[in-house]
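Problem statement: downstream parser choked on a complex file, so we are re-checking the raw output for the adenosine-5'-diphosphate run. The parser issue turned out to be on our end (a line-ending mismatch), but while we're here, posting the original submission so the record is complete.
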Amino acid sequence: MLKKCLIANRGEIAVRLIMACRELGMMTVAVYSDPDARARHVFLADEAYPLGGNSAKESYLRGELLVEIALKSGCDCIHPGYGFLSENEDFAGEVIEAGLAWVGPKPATIRAMGVKTVARALMQSAGVPIVPGFQSESADDALFLSEAAKMGYPVMVKAAGGGGGKGIRIVRSADDLLEALAGARREAQNAFNDPRVFLEKYIENGRHIEVQLLADEHGNILHLYERECSAQRRHQKIIEETPSPLLTPTTRAQICEAAVNAGRAVNYVNAGTVEFIATPEQQFYFLEMNTRLQVEHPITELVTGVDIVKWQFKIASGEPLTLTQADIHQRGHAIECRIYAEDAHNNFLPAIGQVKLFIPPHMPGVRVDSGLSSGDHISIYYDPMIAKLIVHDETRQDAIGRMQTALRQTVLLGTTTNIVFLLTLLNTPIFRDGDIHTAYIDAHLADLLPEAPPPPLSVLFALALSEASITANTATPTGDSDGDRFSPWGRTDSFRIQNTR
Ligand code: ADP
Ligand code: ADP
Ligand code: MG
């Protein structure tokens, strides 16, 4: 088994990875940027080293420095989390070159799946259905126009190197295609340093359904069933759930089999996700493969009982999967809400500033994945996702009720969050009926932004107590330079507040 891991990430996912290592008896090394010097992942790891800098580019994206720190601190592996360097095949290669284990798929797999057009071609030859589309190495606009006309509108312009919902345009008529091509190319060049775009038939009222895979180095591959992530704003997921309310048992079996075939076609190793778009009639098509851990992996963990992150480390250690497909079952229903520090009433702009008080809900069937503590600052430098609320219950209806209660029990003071927006979304008939599709939120935004209700009494009460908590939580840690960490359990004041509520 691997013994010591450098966690090349921050926030909730760094915390999640550290806890998995701890369960496995592995040591952990955290890294941090200047604004993250007192972040939770830094306290929790066995050792922590500064990267310097503020922006991701100045800190968490410094691959060479990360490898150097890993080697100097005696690590035998690096886990990249998601975002940052997780899908960077050059970094994965450098990690392996340095004699460290990469907790993820082979660099060649990351490369092949990193370009959507390449992935589409590979999947087509493996017999996995792909969305009808058009791709060309040339940027000849006349060609794109004639191919789009053949395909029929609406079409989607997508960045070949895409990710995070960037470089995507829906085009409803030929009049708008040239402008969309130019806009998508510009955005793709900025975001991915690659201006190539391609066309896909736009699936109306489409449902985002993805399948979690686990594969070891010994040729074993299995799926952990699907997740549905159709509640999206600007092609980014907000609420995810499993099982999908769309799929019948027959289609579920088919889509899971297609995902396993996709994984086999690229000799996939470690955890990965195959994303599909499905019509309301359950016709499904391959979209892309994410060669990393996914933000929404916890809902799968709750429903299948399989710890995906621990398996990532075991697989990277060379262990064979001891699970078989027959061992994996979907039990009950799980939902995840991504809590963002953002202002829904102000075009969802990140709400930066200090979180004065964060008291997550403590309830049966509720899991909170977060890297945030009271007193922490939300900065402009990173993704403003501050916590994931994940619930598990017997039925979908129970899980929705549990999620609503958990959201209302979440105390987050000092910054604007999307909690009210999430509550509104969970209450819309289309979500409750299990019919929400990927375009719904963008098309109905005005209806989803009602006046914010007054905060509940518990929140006002907590507000009155918040000053004490801030004083306790901004105390400077006294860990010494050779890696002794300050105990997070020393932060007793926030616990005292909880106990007196
Ligand atoms: P998931 O598919 O796991 O839900 P997301 O698409 O929401 O993941 O992305 C996970 C994180 O990584 C987010 O913080 C997102 O901003 C970031 N991310 C994903 N892909 C890219 C990319 N190609 N470039 C930059 N950031 C990305
Ligand atoms: P990214 O790498 O940015 O995650 P994806 O290819 O996964 O890009 O697409 C992001 C989202 O855009 C999907 O989850 C889906 O909601 C929507 N989408 C992508 N392709 C199509 C399509 N052909 N038709 C309809 N919606 C699509
Ligand atoms: Mg995607």
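For whoever reads this later: The pocket of adenosine-5'-diphosphate (ligand 1) is lined by residues 82-83, 163-164, 236-237, 290, 294-296, 383 (CB under 6 Å).
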